[in-house]
Every structure is written in C-alpha cells, then in structure tokens.
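Human: Cast an eye over this sequence-structure pair and say how the chain folds.
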Amino acid sequence: MEQEEFPIAINLSVFTESNSKTRRSLMKVVILAGGFGTRISEETHLKPKPMIEIGDKPILWHIMKLYSSYGFNEFIICLGYKSHVIKEYFSNYFLNNSDVTFNFENEPLENLARDGQFMEFKHTGFWQPMDTLKDKLYLQEIWESQKSPWKNWDQ
C-alpha cells in the first residue's frame, strides 16, 4: 500500500463569503488523513477513508466545511494511503469552484510543533466516528434526513 511522506496545505476561501483578517483566519487547521481505514474496508479498498461520501460529498469536505463556517479557512491535510485520490478531488473541486493554491511541504507538522503553533480546542458539539460501515450508514441516514447537526452552512 502506498504511503507518502508529505502533507498538503489548502486554502479554502471558497467555502466562505468573507475573508476578514481575524485571528481565526490566520490559524491553520491540521487534519490527519493518512490512515488505511481498515475497519471500514468495505469502502476503503477503492478510496481513502476521508473520501467516503456522506450525501454526495466526502466526509473530509464536511469536516472542512464545518471549520470554515467558523472562519478557519486554511488547512494542512496530512495525507498517506491513496493520497492521490484526495489531491485529485480537491484539485478538481477548487479548479472548478475558486482560485486555488497548493503548497507542498516536507515537514509542516514538525515546523508547527517547533514553533509552538499547535492549539487545543475543546469540542462540545456533535461528534460521531466513522470507523465502520455501520457508522458511515448512520451518518448517511442523518444527512439524508436533512437534520445533520454538523451542517451549519447555507449551501
């Protein structure tokens, strides 16, 4: 199985209408998206776990959209297994929907740690893992009911 050593940084200003220079707009969200997804192998034999769809969008899109709704629009996505699928999806998504900048770095996590840039955030809202096909089907059911607690954006 393929494993890559570098993360990808993505600016998601396409997700929000405002680009104000608040403290949040200066912070980057680090998403670990490099695992094999073995507990949900029914889906991950074709694509990486972050690309499993809820509705018609990958779970990674939902996570990024949620952060973006709070003003966090820059993401470092640490890729591994089938990373090309994630790169292709977001390359095509952004090329069709916005201006896009891809920045490939070899050591972004080490740099963030060295510079003391990691921050802790206590989450008190909706949380549901997606480790198994049962979890995926549950999230899909919530999404289709149009009552998904994580959706707090208009479009």
The chain is about 35% helix and 15% strand. Confidence is low (pLDDT under 50) at residues 1-6, 13-21. The first strand starts at residue 8 and ends at 11. The radius of gyration is 16 Å.
